[in-house]
Structures are given as C-alpha cells and as structure tokens.
Amino acid sequence: MGPPPTHCPEAQMAEILFPALFVLLALGLPVAFAMAISVFVALSFGSSYPNLVVVKEMFSGLDSFPLLAVPFFILAAEIMTGGAVTLAMLRLAQSLVGHLKGGLGHANVVSSAMFAGISGSALADAAGIVNDNGIMTDSHGRTSAPHVWAAGDCASFPYRGGRIRLESVPNAIDQAELVAENIMGADKEYVAKPWFWSDQYDVKLQIAGLNMGYDRVITRRSDADSVAFWYYRGDELLAVDAMNDPRGFMIGRRLIEAGKSPAPALIEDPNTDLKALLKS
Ligand SMILES: Cc1cc2nc3c(=O)[nH]c(=O)nc-3n(C[C@H](O)[C@H](O)[C@H](O)COP(=O)(O)OP(=O)(O)OC[C@H]3O[C@@H](n4cnc5c(N)ncnc54)[C@H](O)[C@@H]3O)c2cc1C
Question: Which of 7, 38, 45, 223 is spaced 20 to 30 Å from 162 by Cα?
Fold first, then answer.
C-alpha cells in the first residue's frame, strides 16, 4: 500500500474502485468476487491509509451485533420450529385475535411481537426499561424505570449529541463511580473521556478518544517497535491508537481531554517534541 497518508483518500479510492467493479462485472465475474477484488485493488493502489488501520476497520465492521443477530435469529427460528414452539405461539396468537376481522394479519402481528420479546434483552423487556443499543440512560445514569440506574457495558448514554455504549474497563469504572455518587444524591453528569488499553502478546495497545468520523490518519513512528496513529476530522484531533508507544498515547490523551488539536503537519514531523504541544 501507499505512503503514510497526508490527505483524504476517499475520492482517489472511488476513482479506482468503481471502474474496477464495472469492468469485472462486465467480464461476467460473480458479484461477490467482483466486489471483493475491486475493493482489494482500490485498497492496494488508491488508499493511503496504513495497512493496520485498514485491517482494524475491517474487523470493526464485522464486530456488529446486528450482523451477528441475523444468523442467530435464523438459527433460533429453526430450533423453535423444530421443537414446535413456533407452532404453539402461532396457535396462541390465533386464539387471541384470530376471530377478529382480518384475523390472519392480527395473529401475524401478535406472534411477531412475541418473537421480538423473547429474542431481545429479556430482563429489560420484562422490566419495561427502554433500550437503545443497551439500557438507555440519561446523562446521570438513570434508566427509564424509577430508582434503576445503569453503568458499564450495558448502558447507552448521551455523548456529543448522540448516544453511545462503551465496552472498556476504564469506562465501566468511571461510570460506575459517578452513578454511585448520583445514587447518593450528587446529581453529576457523566462526561465520558474514552480510553482503552489492552496487552496483545508483545504489543501494548492504548487508545485515547474515539476515531468515529475521521477523514485523515497520521502515522508517527517512534522506533521500529513503536507506532501511533493520530486520527483527524478536518483539523480536529479525534483519537490516537498507540502500539508500544505509551508516551504518544499519554500526550494524545491529554491533548484530546484538553480539547487541543495540534496541526497534523506537526504530528507528521518526526522532529516535533510532542510534550511541547501540551503547553501550546
Ligand atoms: C474477551 C474480552 C477481552 C476484553 N479485553 C479488554 C481489555 O483489554 N481492556 C478493556 O478495557 N476492556 C476489555 N474488555 C471489556 C471489559 O471486560 C468490559 O468493558 C468490562 O468488564 C465491563 O464491565 P461491566 O462491569 O460493565 O460488566 P461485566 O464485567 O460484564 O460485569 C457484569 C456482571 O454482571 C453479572 N450478571 C449478568 N447478568 C446478571 C444477572 N441477571 N444477575 C446477576 N448478575 C448478573 C455478570 O456475571 C458479570 O459478573 C474485554 C472484554 C472481553 C469479553
């Protein structure tokens, strides 16, 4: 793949991706192969994102609960049908509303509602707590049920105008501490400062911020074993992924938490003293 990125590469990739796709389709290649090969060609010749970022994005794309839900939903239906549970539910729905005018349609809706109930987050459904990619809370950690609070992996909370659910130990600890204070009457808002660490064999992975919506990645290598990827949207620093680079991570984290965005050219320059950026 190409050199370290210095500009937004989407347009350049599209110029290769679509002609390649149409040529392969015109040659009669099956659609799936045409898509896979054209993406590979576009990534190889048109992308200036680092290889590691491309691989990470591919896995992030796969790590989708709705995507996983599709095969499991079909499997659950097969098991329920094999065990005659589906039939029993349809019969129950039929006996409840089947006698009404348009009964077949009503029975269909009632049985679908039962399926939705048993295939979702059963405990929250049973308690009547509102869900939105997890147990929905307000900025203080309160759920829709009185006196019920949520924190950690299960909680989706307001973040930068939207909602988010974070799966990391630091978030679970910070949010739980705040919710505990609020239960005692502190009345504090949770302002998430996402960061993450993990040891993967000989690689210490540390992430500061969230790179959602980035359009540019700057690669900064400290030595042969240490590298950090700095994610920008326009001129705004969103996140830093550091591999065996605790210094890059710590400075990136402090910059993000302080709302500072050093010019990408400064990060790209190996002679820049990162620590000095904290004072500017
Ligand atoms: C394989 C793996 C690797 C990970 N690696 C990292 C990492 O390197 N770094 C990092 O920051 N994060 C990592 N995470 C994520 C991290 O573990 C979670 O974000 C964190 O543990 C969430 O804490 P929690 O308290 O919200 O939930 P949990 O730790 O899941 O605790 C929930 C507890 O509730 C219990 N429970 C569930 N249902 C009930 C019930 N009905 N009644 C009573 N108890 C119940 C569960 O048994 C569990 O003990 C990893 C997660 C996984 C799965």
Answer: 7
Instruction: List per-residue pLDDT tens for the chain, 280 residues long.
Output: 444 444 556 777 888 899 999 999 999 999 999 999 998 888 888 777 777 787 877 887 777 777 777 788 788 878 888 888 888 888 898 899 989 888 888 888 888 788 776 755 556 555 667 777 889 999 999 998 889 999 999 999 999 888 999 999 999 999 999 999 999 999 999 999 999 999 999 999 999 999 988 999 999 998 888 999 999 999 999 999 999 999 999 999 999 999 999 999 999 999 999 999 998 7
With a Cβ cut-off of 6 Å, ligand 1 is lined by: 152-153, 167-170, 172, 196-198
CA 153 to ligand 1 centroid distance, Å: 7
Set out the domains of the chain in order of their start, with CATH numbers. Answer: 65-120 (no CATH), 127-183 (no CATH), 195-279 (3.30.390.30)
For residue 153, the ligand 1 atom closest to its alpha carbon is 26
Q: Token pair of 195, please?
A: 């960061």
Ligand 1 centre to CA of 118 (Å) is: 23
- pTM of this prediction? 0.68
Distance of CA 51 to the CA centre of its chain: 19
Q: How far is CA 198 from CA 203, 204, 207, 242, 243, in A?
A: 8, 6, 9, 11, 10
